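User: Can you fold this complex?
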Amino acid sequence: MDLQLTEEQQLIRDTVREFAREHIAPRAAEIDRTREFPLDNYRRCAELNLTGMMVDEAHGGAGLDAVSYAIAVEELSRACATTGVIISVNNSLYCDPVARYGTDEQKERWLTPFARGEKLGCYCLTEPHSGSDAAALRTMAVRDGKDWVLNGSKVFVTNGVAAHTAVVYATTDRTAGHKGVSTFLVDRDTPGYSLGKHETKMGITASGSVEVVLEDCRVGPENLLGPVGEGFKVALSTLDGGRIGIAAQAVGIAQSCLDHALAYSKEREAFGRPIAELQAIQFKLADMATQVEAARMLTYRAAAAKDAGGRFSKEAAMAKLYAATVCVDAAREAVQIYGGYGYINEYPVERLYRDAKITEIYEGTSEIQRLVIAANILKEA
Amino acid sequence: MDFNLSEDQRMVRDMVAEFADQVLGPGVMERERTGAFPEAEIRRAGELGLLGMSIPEEWGGSGLDTVSSALALMEIARVCPSTAVTLSVTNSVCAYPIWRFGTDAQRDRYLRPLASGQILGGFCLTEPQAGSDATNQKTRAVRKGDTYLLNGTKVWVTNAHVGKVFVVMAVTDPAAGKKGISAFIVTPDMPGFAFAPKEDKMGLRASATSSVILEDCQVPAGNLLGREGDGMRIPLNALDSGRIGIASQAVGIAQGARDEAVRYARERTAFGKPLAQHQAVAFQIADMATEIEAARLLTLRAAALRDADPDAVGPAAAMAKLYASEMCNRVAYRAVQVHGGYGYSREYPVERFYRDARVTTLYEGTSEVQRIVISRAILAG
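Assistant: Here's the predicted assembly.
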């Protein structure tokens, strides 16, 4: 057991922290306000090899471990939660399934440019009528000769407004339930692929969440990712990895809440002294710091479990569930420490409070994480 | 970063788990009912090297790292929390400070029998008026020739009556405040040393707790531990180690309660299916497991940090102790809830775990004291 970061992991943390402080953090408030997808941030992350962190170098990636990836997403999210999720989605939800299931030809076309950050990917699973109950999806893919014709609607697609290609889950056999789901790579310039409603969200306002509409969208056999009927397996295993990214995002947001709360409590005076000298404030800070550390450990452990190979669903679910809870709690306490200023858009914790909430919802709600954890425990001897 | 236990660590954990299940388990309900001290069981623990876990072998100890000690205490507390605190106190706040601050003569005479498992030890810091405010010591030590005369009362002394060596804090220079406090190695056979009757506690009923009354207790000058006026350095250092022990105990109690809850939830049926199939119960199990895992990681992190630098572990040990002890109470509460009315019956182990859990947020520094330690560290950082 060695719970210290390796030298390489430390270097990544320091590098991304410095980069995020210098380039990402200063624009976080503006991005939140304008709600414009920060493509320039994405490109900058690409320059640092953060867009395909776990993809092998032969396919344009950085060839790093999942712990390093978690560290990077945490540091980016600490500066800007929107940027954190954009990077997490491209790495975990787009590149990961293509890397695991793609053929060499598919990787050449649909992995390398995305890992390099020349292109951006997104992930289409959720539908208006199926969120947590993902197997109930209605998007259909019907075979027509060699081609597949897709029809349906996908919602809350992060990166959707700017993504070049989507990983799309669709039913190829309605009678087979979740065993009838298959995975497709669909380029945005495919006829029949269009963007629907742009969501106006509470937080992570600029992550480009949009509806993706597929109307008689015809793709070739080369667009099928993995075997027919294995889509649900692809989706769930992909989400296991994605949850590490979101757990890391939650840790980053929570750490940012703590950073701001610490700084503010040293500056702000009440009753003749800085509020940092009041025990009520000190104890909030102590609880926040303790919980952030616990969430970080769970997240790194889940990442390490992924690196070890084998299943890591339970570890990822625990990390995501706990980190999201801590994130929302930390944001609430940070706003409380700021008092009225915490409710004002000029101060960063107001944004963090809004950003935090999504971590309990996307890539599996907290309730779904509990289902996964309980099922795993009850399976154990 | 490597979350896997080393082979040695796994061996220690498995060996102690077996000891706990086979030796401690069978009599634990009876002992907790009668309050009988587990004398024979502790002797067996001593033979296994569990009384001087982190003491080097040259002084009779097992020479284990702190991570291994923590794992051992978790396994013991999972079955018998009273034995866990008996061992934790002997190891962390008696044997350890004698090894760390003692002379070779003191080590030879007092540490060797402790570490080799022949005798138990204790720690006398708390006084009727000095709990969290530990420096408010009233016990006096006055030098008369080759002897110190100690006068005062120490309370909540774990291993009272059964212990043969105690590290006792007393004021040698009342004018010097904190710096006027010194540590002594005191044995119950010294004239003027007496135990008060055993305390009637809510939980941990098989651990021996009472006050120690010192009336002109004659302690040889050679039994001064460290230097006169070493102040709180010795007890605070010992408590850093002790807090990792109590955090481990709390993780173990929670694990024991969780195991019982899972077992019961599988067996008991309601509304035509096992409790475990009801989401309201399954989700409680998921939350318990997640929080236990978070606490385990915080505790092992503190242990690993202590192995790297025993003087820099204060805040990490405080975080582990704070989180694990609060978590332990939440988990025990839920475990009782899952059991329904049976959880309130002494026939079921969760009733005992619920009572045992309560003290973990109180001793070796209340949760409030841990928050003081943590907030000081983060506000200074």
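Residues 233-267 of chain B form the longest helix (35 residues). The mean pLDDT of chain B is 96.
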